[in-house]
């Protein structure tokens, strides 16, 4: 179901020869650079997520593809709907870092510890436990799900890896909040066009500088606001343009 609409769209625009190719329907990249298998061959596998230690050909994620193909056709989560439903302007947003998600990385659990230690600048909690169910008593209880549009009642958004790259990242960039992105080996199809401290604020993979950088943004609101203005939704344009070109 994730590939049919993409292939049908391509088939309406071009005459495709009889061909076979590999599509990875999981999240993790599969063609590792240091693969030492018996044949020691690499394959042209298309994946939604790439990494610095893999050779997969990265294509737009399934939800970005769907929102591009269905743009304006029906109500769904896409970048335009995020822009249209982010209610508050910067000056009226809460000066805290906001995050909701499931327990799909150890760093996300660390974020809960940080949030509890600094409740005046963080509003973060887990909505589901799957990978660390035995630690729910430590990092729970689970919080209710929140409308994605309500994320942007807050000035600062956190982009943290899940099992791979967090596929919400392009939507976070479109919401008019300042995005703090975890350094990671994983990437989506448009990441190479992004510039740190222009389109987002990088934070260490282990989150050790997260508190410092959020506090800086709070203490330097005008500078943070100017940084946000530099984005000018460039990531949204690049993300969609690249997806349209591929479709």
TrEMBL record:
Main subcellular location: endoplasmic reticulum
Domain Glycosyl transferase CAP10: 15-247
Segment forming the signal sequence: none
Subcellular location: Endoplasmic reticulum lumen
Function as written in the Swiss-Prot or TrEMBL entry: Protein O-glucosyltransferase. Catalyzes the reaction that attaches glucose through an O-glycosidic linkage to a conserved serine residue found in the consensus sequence C-X-S-X-[PA]-C in epidermal growth factor-like repeats. Regulates Notch signaling by glucosylating Notch in the ER, glucosylation is required for the correct folding and cleavage of Notch.
Name recorded for this polypeptide: Glycosyl transferase CAP10 domain-containing protein
Taxonomic source organism: Cryptolaemus montrouzieri
GO CC terms: endoplasmic reticulum lumen
Source organism superkingdom: Eukaryota
Pfam families linked to this entry: Glyco_transf_90
């Amino acid at each position: 179901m994730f590939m049919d609409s993409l292939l049908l769209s391509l088939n309406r625009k071009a005459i495709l020869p009889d061909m076979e190719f590999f599509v990875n329907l999981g999240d993790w990249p599969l063609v590792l650079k240091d693969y030492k298998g018996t044949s020691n061959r690499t394959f042209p596998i298309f994946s939604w997520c790439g990494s610095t230690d893999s050779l997969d050909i990265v294509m737009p994620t399934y939800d970005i593809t769907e929102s591009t193909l269905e743009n304006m056709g029906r109500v769904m989560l896409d970048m335009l709907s995020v822009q249209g439903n982010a209610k508050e302007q910067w000056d009226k947003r809460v000066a805290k870092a906001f995050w909701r998600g499931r327990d799909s990385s150890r760093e996300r659990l660390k974020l809960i510890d940080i949030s509890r230690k600094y409740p005046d600048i963080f509003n973060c909690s887990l909505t589901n436990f799957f990978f660390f169910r035995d630690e729910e008593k430590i990092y729970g209880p689970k919080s209710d799900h929140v409308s994605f549009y309500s994320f942007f009642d807050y000035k600062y958004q956190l982009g943290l890896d899940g099992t791979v790259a967090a596929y919400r990242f392009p939507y976070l960039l479109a919401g008019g909040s300042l995005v703090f992105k975890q350094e990671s080996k994983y990437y989506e199809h448009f990441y190479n066009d992004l510039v740190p401290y222009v389109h987002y604020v990088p934070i260490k993979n282990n989150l050790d500088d997260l508190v410092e950088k959020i506090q800086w943004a709070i203490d330097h609101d005008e500078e943070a606001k100017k940084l946000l203005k530099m984005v000018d939704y460039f990531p949204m344009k690049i993300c969609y343009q690249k997806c349209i070109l591929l479709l």
